[in-house]
Amino acid sequence: MDQTIPEVIRTIPLQYYVFFATALFAIGVLGVLTRRNAIIIFMCVELMLNAVNILLAAFSAYRADPNGQVFVFFIMAVAAAEVAVGLGIIVMIYRNVQNTDVNLLDRLKW
Amino acid sequence: MLSIILLSVSGLANLFLGFNRSNRLILPFVLLVLAAVLGVTVSGIDTHGALAVWNQSPYFTGMLTFDRYAQVFTGVMVLTTLLLLPFSQKYVRDGNANLAEYYSILLFSLVGGIMMVSYNNLLIFFLGVETLSIAMYVLAGSDKSNLRSNEAALKYFLMGSFTTGILLFGIALLYGATGTFDLAQMGNAVRAIPAADAGLRPMMHIGLLLMLIGVGFKISAAPFHFWTPDVYEGTPTLFTGYMSTVVKTAGVAGFFKLLFVAFGGETIEFWLPTLTAMLVLTLFIGNVGAVAQTNAKRMLAYSSISHAGYLLLALVALQSGRLSVNAIFFYSLAYSVATVAAFAVLKLVHDQRERDDYDGLNGLARTNPLLAFVMTVAMLSLAGIPLTGGFFGKFYLFSAAAQEGHIGLVIFAVVMSAVGIFYYLRPIMAMYMKPAAEGSDAPVFVGGFQSAVLVLLVALTVLLGVWPGVVEGMF
């Protein structure tokens, strides 16, 4: 049990990580395109970002290069900033229309 | 680097000015800071040496470089902001409670823009894109009680964060294929991957394609443009002006650097067809879409889509090196000045008449000859009529593309800019040919300082049009 974390990560072949991250990313994209509730769309975006994090961490462990893991920290920090702003916007809209359904927002035509 | 430090520190200091409840101090302070940053940037431009020096004066172990490319585009963005902000005086007069915050967010977003043109590592590029975008989400929704502004903010936010995910997935795949985030090292690694490699090459191609989609969203290139008209219409006019100038300049200049440094050479054959298709579609949708509009802000939104298309010409002609860098620089400068002038007039008219469709401009030539004249010059420059900056901007872009043998694309772009003349003339006709509606024919209030800035904008546009050599030495 005295393996380092990159060694543990390397016990699973790299392509499994790529497939898993791609699947997670695809689920996120599908969710953004099909769901109509702003908060759920937002959760799907977070899913996409986490797929990226997994992919970066796996590549980083396989290449024995710490840059990828540092990038993951930055993505987490930025995602937190985005959550703060995004929920602020959604609360602002909820105060005005008492709903978070994106279909209600049709004052501007697409 | 000094520009980033100055802007960040004074953004924080500006927040403290907000405690003071004296809104009158804030605007002069911000303008002073921007003027200082512009001075520092322009005086720091080193016009000697070849463009090929991409990593002069590196910071953060070479993740950020302030070479001539970065300095020049920083200068364009800071100048644009400096010229735009005097038209926010109505917020000052109305005693807007959150004024200090809005200005600070604007300064911070400018830092993001500077990072996007001075990065040398994809991490900094990503941070720059996000610093710029998150600030813009807030500013798009800054008119909190207005449902249109709310809707614009939500759409911009959802589209923007979705795009961020796509952009990041692209970066992750590129990292997987090349093992580095550093631009120059990535370029070497890309060239080292054999053309027949079945594992890394597809990964790199998909990564680059996803990044192309991500950046395409940010600079509103078709087919990823559909959010643009809605967001531009709903966002408060001042910030729309900022969005269509600074964000676009940063996006195009940053993406050019990525393609030029890391994906030049033979890799070009992979992304060139995709980019060309995007260019043709963008020019077509932007120009044809603008014809159908009745709202001046929506028209400018479509026009900004079409200008993204013209700027993509420089990316297509990337192999010409100095020529296409010069074209991006000159075009974004001329386009920014003209767009700021157009949005400034729209903002002043909107402040008083509360509308931004073409009919809102009726009779402006009689009530406010200066505003009508400024708008006319701005429209002519955007349309690319000779004697205005926009003409030489298009000229440089087209000649760079023609040099690289994209004659068909240039002909298409010329035809599209002929379509552009039609819709740019409509506001001019409204101002000069139609009388103002009953009751709204009072002159629009324009402050003395604002008039001076408007005259400066016209002077800059005409100067760039009659003497383009004035900024020739940059590249």
Give me the secondary-structure category of chain A: mainly alpha
Number of strands of chain A: 0
Q: Give the rounded overall mean pLDDT of chain B.
A: 87
Average of the residue pLDDT scores of chain A:
87
What percent of the residues of chain B sit in helical stretches (DSSP H or I)? over 70%
Identify the biggest protein-protein contact and residues per side. Answer: A-B, 43 and 40 residues
Q: Roughly how much helix do the residues of chain A carry, as a percent range?
A: over 70%
CATH topology of chain A: Helix Hairpins
Q: Give the termini separation of chain A.
A: 57 Å
Q: In what order do the strands lie side by side in the largest sheet of chain B?
A: 1-2
| Total helical elements of chain A | 4
- Structural class per helix/strand content of chain B? mainly alpha
Poorly predicted segments of chain B:
none
Question: What is the number of domains of chain A?
Answer: 1
- Name the overall outline of chain B: globular
What is the H/E order of chain A? HHHH
Q: Output the radius of gyration of chain B.
A: 21 Å
Biggest sheet of chain A, open or closed, and with what strands and sense? Answer: none
Described by strand count, sense and barrel closure, the largest sheet of chain B is: 2 strands, antiparallel
Per CATH, the class of chain A reads: Mainly Alpha
Organism (chain B): Hymenobacter busanensis
GO cellular component, one term (chain B): plasma membrane
Subcellular location (chain B): Cell membrane; Endomembrane system; Membrane
InterPro entries (chain B): NADH-Q_OxRdtase_suN/2 (IPR010096), ND/Mrp_TM (IPR001750)
Comma- or semicolon-separated keywords:
heterodimer; A: 110 residues; mainly alpha; Helix Hairpins; elongated; B: 475 residues; two-stranded antiparallel ribbon; 19 helices; 74% helix; transport (chain B); quinone (chain B); NADH dehydrogenase (ubiquinone) activity (chain B); quinone binding (chain B); NADH-quinone oxidoreductase subunit N (chain B)
